[in-house]
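Re: the pair you flagged

First of the two:
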Amino acid sequence: MTGIDGVAAGEGGGGGARRRGCSCTKDDFLPEESFKSWGNYVQALKDTPTRFKDRLLTRSLDTTELYEIKARSQHEMKKNLSWWDLIWFGIGAVIGAGIFVLTGLQAQKVSGPAVVLSFVVSGVSAMLSVFCYTEFAVEIPVAGGSFAYLRVELGDFMAFVAAGNILLEYVIGGAAVARSWTSYFATLCNRNSDYFLIVVHSMPKDYGKLDPIAVVVVCVICILAVLSTKGSSRFNYVASVIHVIVILFIIIAGFTKADTKNYKDFTPFGVRGIFKSSAVLFFAYVGFDAVSTMAEETKNPARDIPIGLIGSMVITTAAYCLLAVVLCLMQPYPQIDENAPFSVAFEAVGMSWAKYVVAAGALKGMTTVLLVGAVGQARYLTHIARTHMMPPWLAQVHPETGTPINATIVMLAATAIIGFFTDLGVLANLLSISTLFIFLLVALALIVRRYYVSGETSTADRNKLIACIALILASSTATAVYWGVSENNDWIPYVITLPIWFTATAGIAVFVPQARKPKVWGVPLVPWLPSLSIAINIFLLGSIDGASFKRFGMWTCVLLLYYFFFGLHASYDTAKESGENKIGEGWKKVEEGQTDSISATAATAGVSSNQAN
């Protein structure tokens, strides 16, 4: 699509990218040719195999995501965020329910005082993922985050599967934090943590404790998120500063009441307990990917994103480890409270007044997590809707606020509904699966980006790359499966699987030449760091309970049903109408080495669209 075509489509040319302000007609949800009549739809279903092959094999281009896809929202998001905003968004997004709630549960029942090592393992995995996200966010600074990155490197279908899990991650994460907010609010009111819950005995155990306060909190966050991104940033900054002060108070005051005897039995549940906890505590690091979705609103992505993402993750990991140490030094691990561990710990050491400070700080932290999550998830959904994999009505950006109001309201409505019914334990495990799955895909996409470029990578090098990636995935999966199903500590299988992983990674480093160098900021030690990220993420997946995988499988089935009946045909029609489907020709030209002309054409189109808007 040229810039003129894009503008025409957006302004009433009748194209798939057409927008109608705040109207809610059928064409705002299903404007594509396949849904114009029942006959068209039946024919589209018959063509499903052909269309699926096209979407499976077609990869997007950087310039397509940066200009054409972004232009489908008609109005630009406002570029008003700096690295300082991103650091505080990162801190606000991450430090919340994970540390204030799950730490107690994991320390008491799964890992004991060694929970600090669980945070280290999760933190290393999160930091590796941060590196991968940063390189992509610098080079493709759009609201789609990992969805856009996967569309460019792994194709439409894999991007959609990841997108569904991204949305699930945000909805579940928000619901979990909202329910935790209620628990700490009850503590602040000097009540039991489940005081405000409504118990319905006729409903299943995990879904029978209703939480109306969580719904109210989510509604307030929704209002803040739709008004202004910069306004949300200011609120987040103030709340996060207060939150950091409270964390420093907990650490300093906690160490004054520390008893090293509580560390006498450091690993009561063994090494297996450490890794089981790390898989669940990965939930505590969820949220930094929301910062990458703000790249489109960042003044200088090349400078601001690396500082914002990496800086906030370093601060967060250090804070988590110190808080975990303090908690287990204050109380013997069997006595740690599951729901409000820090508040109860201070009460146990004779500082009852401090529990109110902790509860207030926790509420501040969880409020910022909800706010940043709301901002991030709406931008994910907006970019997904721009491709028409979701209804294009969700891609609309309000001309005055510069925020995606429709996407924000829909995502937070889903969050409120889930948070009203579902227990925190169910939410945390399911969230960790979705998050780890997405992060390993992003790491895989980074290896593909560095080592495969159409027209430059030879067939032999491509085949070597595929073989090595297959071995990395297979060895990592074998290690995780054995860890998950075995009850003994036999080390022989690891002597087989780990050298295979090492050899496959070394094979890429030695035998496959890099086809693309990062333009501005790049992950160091490629392919070792992304390969290690893949291995750790898969290994942590092997530590999650089977029931959570069943729920994950059910959600994936729902995603695939939606995709094959709606998303596939809508995105196929949109790509065909806009000219994006001519990417096949683009790849043919790229194979012939004509990359510069294609990039220049796309860039020119993007500039034209932006000027017209």
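Second of the two:
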Amino acid sequence: MKRSLEEQLTQSLRSLGTPLSRPTSCSPSRPTLLPTVSCWRCKCLLPSCSLGSVVFDCFEAALGAEVQIWSYTQPRYQKELNLTQQLPALPWLNVSADGEDVRLVLDVSEEQRFGLSLYWNQVQGPIKPWWHSNLTGPQTITLNHTDLVPCLCIQVWPLEPDSVRTSICPFREDPRAHRNLWRAARLQLLPPLGWRLDAPCSLPAEATLCWQPLDGGPCLSLVPPLPRENVTVNKVLEFPLLKGHPNVCVQVSTWEKLQLQECLWADSLGPRKDDMLLVETRGPQDNGSLCALEPSGCTPLLSRASTRAARLGEQLLQDVQSGQCLQLWDNDLGALWACPMDKYIHQRWALVWLACLLLAAVLFLLLLLKMSRVKGWLRLLKENIRAGAAARSRAALLLYSADDASFERLVGALASALCQLPLRVAVDLWSRRDLSAQGALAWFHAQRRQTLQEGGVVVLLFSPGAVALCREWLQDATSAPRAHDPHDAFAASLSCVLPDFLQGRAPGRYVGAYFDKLLPADAVPALFRSVPVFSLPSQLPDFLGTLQGSAAPRPRRLAERAEQVSRALQPALDSCFRPPGAPGTGRGMGPEAGDRT
């Protein structure tokens, strides 16, 4: 702008018709501020020259303003020099929230070029630039909320000579920025006893030393005797210790709130030790006292308190006097000593182990003397446990038609698997002696009465033979019934089962089931559909849940038990399906298997 003004002034002076020459002396007077704030007046005296020049080297003007220059001679001539200059506008910046993030909106004309810089404005130390870019036209920039810190500032300026830069720091009071600052802060170890707090911004914090016991309790502050120290970030600091110790840690606090704690020297000095920290206080007349730093406070060594330090007070005092303790700090007012406690711990554990061995020996002798009584007690306990489990399990009476030997093996596998749920299963396979002695009908009546009195359930296991028997019993009375095996419990039970279904007493007492590979679903007579009928093994979880009733486990556990039962049934199921024409034992598995003559 300076060069253009000078050229326009020269051309205007030429137009006045005055010859150009350099002045011999020219001393412009100091600018005078006129009553209007935005108006300045400058007077230049040219006493012995016909032409002079005025250079405005530092002309202050606001960005976006219009500058008018009006020059004339004194006394005034007819021609005057007027010049108008439009300065570039300052980019308009707006900071707004975009969810958890922050949006920077810069509203400028499309052709205007400007610079944008993000930097950390540190009170302690120089400005640290973070991001810089030259941009054109309006821009929208999104900042992640994790990048916000209190000292993050934004600077924007037009890319023009001598342009004024505008800076704002909008996150100084943002709670997210303060949380991010403490998350970004790191304590660094600088051996032998130095440390440094690295952070992008200055922190109004204090640092102290503390003593971390081996048992993982709270870190015990060493203030006093050691003083607090103000933290200067990104600068090496040292505490006045004579020697380092792995139990010594650094705490960084702000406004009485603990923010950071690190046992900085643990990596170089090894793991924490079971040492007792003793604080020595020295008086004016060379008389001192020792106390042990514990969670309850500083316990005098020769006291009657019920703490570990008080119980071992005399031994610890002897350790300090004999030089077995490590001196960590020393001055005219006191000292700090770290005394190892390993030897006292070993002595205590030796006594504990000896007492345990003696107790074990006494118990072993008592067991030898009362072995018979112990065996009897264990036997009774085992019987009580079994009796309690049996009392808690539900009873189930399993009725089936003995179509052939392979089907009987399948029924036996199902009954054995149901006993593991637990269920108390009654089946004629396991009661052949009682069945022969009492007869099939009497045995069924006794088992049915006991099962229903105990709140159990009767399971009707349908097969092709069982379906044929049911149809035979349900046929017209004009047909004469066929003779059946007197030991067939299923055939004998139909005389009692059918009346229960015909009179509506079956729901809640009976459950039906069939193997889906042996019998189609529509083969079960409609009369028995008044109770739940399950297809096995596809509906095993629902079948097991109905059998167990209110004692059924959760669905996940029930599915696991159904899987166990399915695996137990699979070998018996495979034996029931043989290729056509293969020899078999017993009666066939076809639809006419139940017809007996």
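The CA atoms of residues 520 and 587 lie 19 Å apart.

-B.
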